[in-house]
Amino acid sequence: MLTHDEKVLGSMLAELGGITDEPGRLTRTFLSPAMERAAILVGSWLQDAGLDVQVDSVGNVIGFRKAANPKAKTLILGSHLDTVRDAGRFDGPLGVLLPVVALYELNSRGVELPFNVEIVGFSEEEGVRFASAYLGSEGYTGRLKAGTLALRDAAGVAVRDALAAFSDKPLPKPRYRRSELLGYVEVHIEQGPVLEKEKLAVGVVSAIAGQSRFKLTWTGKAGHAGTTPMALRRDAFTGAAEFALAAEQLARRTPGLVATVGSVTVAPGAANVIPGQVLHTLDVRHAKDAVRRAALFQLGRLGAQIARRRGLKVSWQRTQDNGATPCSPGLTTRLERSVKAVQGRSLSLVSGAGHDGVVMSSLAPIAMLFVRSRHGLSHHPDEYTAPKDLRVALEVMIDFLQKLAAEHRS
Ligand code: GLV
Ligand code: MN
Ligand code: MN
């Protein structure tokens, strides 16, 4: 029996899912007003679980509870609180709130953990505002680079200036050395169809695919849409469109490769004007770094060929580059042990989506628990995980924490 169960978790997810920057749909982006409100709500739940709460200078909400032993190591649990545009309520918040409910349950059972516990709600993982993901975990681990701080959002505000407006404190220093940590464990919805196909509520991640993101600018010549003959045009949009199709073809014929042009801005943007400039994003991922790099080389050549043939200029700005990240064998084996105890069978999965664990792996061994997504759907308001699957995930987390506690007591 659980006193704090999937119903408690479900109502917390629903309440947090109601905090948005855009009326009528769920959108929370880095350092936005809704993110500040979300941080206050999550902070209050962390406090209820007996954690001391702070918000760091990049907007991460951090709850910390010290163990009785002053030499105890720390286990970090968490995920992100920002969302894509018109998001579902599970991607990110589940990994912050499920550990909170697990602690409520352990507290009410009077279980004392012999290690420190930290729960983090990262302020940015989706890369919506600056087309570069992981700003929250990069800030937390002290890895925000000058190039990232100089990136600008659609309104022309640089990351550096957005941070200065948010906090007058310096960028965070890493809170821990690797030797002080037991690890980082992230619970996340699968965002894919494998667990559903296998009829399993949860699975364990073996590795997270590498990903690169770019902003491409195509420059042609704007002109009159009625008077300029087709042969004399330098249409930046059709060049970009040809490139997007070429990227799609390359990904279709390369097993495991995914390539996406997800955001396009056409200028000047009028029905009767030939597009003079196009700015678009490109997101490329593969579980093997060598395949991803070879694809990027190929895409660079394709872009140059298309631009040459059409009399256009194309320039690339790399906004993100993360190699494939393996999960830690030691921590993953322990998570699998708990999955087997609760579910009977454990399944190993590779994550095509990026996660805060990618950046956290620079600081600590990482492990990830995936929870079934209905129809494998995510980054969509219909994203859904059934209460019975939330329950399994909660029981796995409680079992994992109890077994880890038993190891550290003995
Ligand atoms: C994060 O959700 C990603 O784009 O993988
Ligand atoms: Mn996520
Ligand atoms: Mn996401």
What does this protein structure show overall?
The protein has twelve helices and 16 strands. Strands 1, 2, 3, 4, 5, 6, 14, 15 and 16 form a nine-stranded mixed beta sheet that branches. Strands 7, 9, 10, 12 and 13 form a five-stranded antiparallel beta sheet that branches. It is α+β, with helices and mostly antiparallel strands. The longest helix has 23 residues, at 387-409. The site of one manganese (II) ion (MN) has 6 residues, from loops.
Topology summary:
Blueprint: H1 6-17, H2 33-48, E1 52-55, E2 61-65, E3 74-80, H3 93-108, E4 116-122, H4 135-140, H5 146-149, H6 159-166, E5 181-189, H7 194-198, E6 202-208, E7 210-219, E8 223-224, H8 236-253, E9 258-260, E10 264-267, E11 273-274, E12 277-286, H9 289-310, E13 313-322, E14 325-326, H10 329-343, E15 348-351, H11 356-360, E16 366-371, H12 387-409
Parallel strand pairs: 3-4, 3-5, 5-16, 6-15
Antiparallel strand pairs: 1-2, 2-4, 6-14, 6-16, 7-12, 7-13, 8-11, 9-12, 10-12
Helix pairs in contact: 1-3, 1-12, 2-3, 3-12, 8-9, 10-12
The structure holds glyoxylic acid and manganese (II) ion (MN) (2 copies).
